Amino acid sequence: MKKAKKLLALTLALAMAVGLAACTDTGSGDGGSDTSIYRTLYSSEVETMNYLYTTSSGNLEIPANTVDTLIEYDCYGVVRPALAESWEHNEDYTEWTFHIRQGVQWVDKDANPVAEVTAQDWVDAAHYILDASNSSSSEYNFEVAQVTNAAAYYEYTAYLLELETATDGTDENGNPVKLDADGEVIEEVPAVSADDIGVKATDTYTLVYSLDAPCSYFLSMLCWAAFLPVNGDFLAQCGDSFGTSAETLLYCGPFILSTFEPQVQRVMTKNPTYWDIENVHIDTIQMTYNAEAATLATTMYLQGEVDYADISADLLSSLLETNSDEIHYSRPDVSYSYWYLFNFDPQFPAEYEPDNWRLAVNNENFRLSIMHGLDRVNALQAKDFADPESLLSNTITPLGAASASQDYAYYGGLEKYTDGDTFDPDLALEYRDAAIEELTAEGASFPIIMYYPYNPNETNSDSMAQLIEQQLEGLLGTDYIDVVIQQGNESFLTMVRRSGNYAFTLCNWGADYSDASAYVVDPFSDDSSYSFIYRSDDPETQAYYQEYLDLVETALAITDDIEARYETFAQAECVLLDHGFVIPIKTNDREYSFSKLNPLEGSYASFGFATSRYKFQHVLEKSMGMEEFEQAYQTWLEEREAALAVASE
Question: Do the Cβ atoms of 105 and 277 come closer than 8 Å?
């Protein structure tokens, strides 16, 4: 328990004054003008801004900047107060009390005050999220934190929802029952009131979360949609229209969404009533829609029309020769982990032979032939031709995402992946030969079609797919596999990944909090929309999956020994890697860009939406060059180490 408390101290500590000065007031840097404007392009429109419903990072970009959190992270990743001025927890971390900052206002799009932010706003948010009729994606955050009666209330409201379309029937004993659409008996669920949920406003400015089990990492969960506040009266007034326009949101964060014209523009302006306005250095953020943003942004930056542009790999070499004094790469970011996944429940067109794929994907030798045959460094040239190996990530939970006495990636046997490389051509060919023999006996036909739709919203994903097709087919042979790449729908999550419309594709996951479970559990649970391993009816696949589930269950139950918890989670992750269910490849891209923002000033955390926030950042006169950035980055590393040391005392 002492080790768990020591880990928590790193997260619990407030900014501690020392080390925060560089994050909270770095000088003017606004380009010498009275008004600071930052201009960007975007190519994909939000589906909703209802932050109580969505967990998509794209949908949450605006709420992350317009609605404040209880706590926030500075540029070094140290916790500082936000809407909670202070907080405390009981001895075993099952009760967390937050003291809400007084006088903070909810305002409308024109900055007119509407209501004061109070503790009840978090209670109202929880009641909405945990009502199954609202279909919120954030319910699982309350389940992970084991907020008292959260899951029970969600199950009860789901039961009531099911009853709305139920029909009358009788069970095998002739007793009256309710039947669902498939004629199955609907099991009665005990009644639970919203008032029973462990989220309470004990007075106007005191908020208490009660948990069923210790959660030492609870603070790290709070910079995410599930724990944003909402004004309950306004939410009720808006109904289903909440979050559909600038007028159907209220704002208590550093910015206000003053203009929202879908597929035209979004404008966020500084909130003049913001409680911490001295740390908001940008007056206006202009986001202009352009379906070809990825292609046009570089040219528009050079013409002075925008202030940010990602530089694609095919342009980087030439631009480094002409504009190296304005190009730099991004601060390392492990807030997302990327993996290649096999789909065990193929729902793609018949021309790609889903039944044949189903045979192949359930064959371990086939999966391992792909895993060991995939030259990931070669594929990552599409992201960074100069240093692709620096992008490589070897585990599902990336280095730096969680740690106890050592980084999580060195627990439970993961070190063989962390310090190794799965690419092994000779081993891949051995697995290929074994797979051919076994699959032929099962009636599979060759070549196996690997239907690979790529995400068009992911920079250079088409080039990466082409490199993988050429490399895998070149090594394993076109008589063994036929990698068929295709541009996926722009609504990639809905139309491709969640619907199972792929055989093999690149997927990602962003952690919502700082614990090993954030990466190991949710994406591979038995109700997830990743990989669909749980839908396989193959006995061997199910045996391995059950081994993973058993280890996860054991790890989740360990709440007083972080070493044992991480050891067991790592063993569960090893099951997924050892049997080729997942092929890790990278974390967030180290993007090369033109940017008039200092990438080292913004909030920093490897989870939640901290890195999506514009607070603390200045608009520069010109973009940093590589040499300037590297010097600033080394200074940042030194200052971060000092800030974390102070915070852990």
Answer: no
